[in-house]
């Protein structure tokens, strides 16, 4: 993890936003963005890894994050990482590919979400989800 004033602020926002959420296996959800952040190699991608699901999964908006002092570069990547329900998933992924920061974070996100060792049960839904994530990874890495 890269520790700067900005990444520490993002850690606090991430924790507060996700503190009561659980992942599919019942673990605290906040472990997921922290895992992604550990893989980042610069301040802005670390911030985006920590905050990548905050707007999509909580009441926090991009405007809120901007008023907290997160820079435009991070907000642009976070906007791309926020999947609007009406946008087909692969179109969303193609848009992410336009931004190197969003791409780096999404690749880490997809890899972590594809790790079936995290799951208690590998059912048909998990297999289909992994197929979708494999296609998304192909789009982002070619």
Give structural notes:
The protein has 142 residues and is mainly alpha-helical. It has a single domain, classed as Hypothetical protein af1432, CATH 1.10.3210. It has nine helices and no strands. It is globular, with a radius of gyration of 15 Å. The two termini are 27 Å apart. The mean pLDDT is 96.
Largest sheet properties: none
| Average pLDDT reading | 96
Can you identify the CATH class? Mainly Alpha
Number of strands: 0
CATH superfamily (homologous) name: Hypothetical protein af1432
**If classified by CATH, what would the architecture be?**
Orthogonal Bundle
Helix content: 55-70%
CATH fold group = Hypothetical protein af1432
SSE pattern: HHHHHHHHH
Structural class by helix and strand composition: mainly alpha
* Strand residues, percent: under 5%
Oligomeric state, counting identical vs distinct chains: single chain
Please tell me how large the radius of gyration is.
Answer: 15 Å
Termini gap: 27 Å
Helix and strand arrangement:
Blueprint: H1 5-18, H2 31-38, H3 43-51, H4 54-57, H5 62-67, H6 72-81, H7 89-96, H8 100-113, H9 124-141
In brief, what are we looking at here?
The chain is about 65% helix and about 0% strand. With about 140 residues, the protein is mainly α.
Annotation keywords:
mainly alpha, 142 residues
């Amino acid at each position: 993890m890269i520790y700067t004033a900005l990444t520490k602020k993002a850690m606090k926002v991430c924790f507060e936003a996700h503190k009561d959420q659980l992942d599919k296996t019942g673990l605290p959800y906040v472990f997921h963005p922290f895992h992604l952040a550990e893989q980042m190699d610069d301040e802005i991608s670390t911030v985006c890894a920590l905050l990548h699901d905050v707007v999509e999964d909580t009441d926090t908006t991009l405007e809120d994050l901007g008023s907290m002092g997160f820079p435009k570069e991070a907000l642009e990547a976070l906007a791309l990482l926020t999947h609007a329900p009406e946008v087909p998933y692969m179109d969303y992924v193609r848009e992410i590919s336009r931004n190197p920061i969003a791409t780096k974070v999404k690749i880490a996100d997809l890899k972590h979400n594809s790790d079936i060792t995290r799951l208690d049960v590998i059912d048909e839904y998990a297999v289909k989800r992994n197929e979708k994530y494999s296609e998304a990874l192909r789009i982002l890495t070619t």
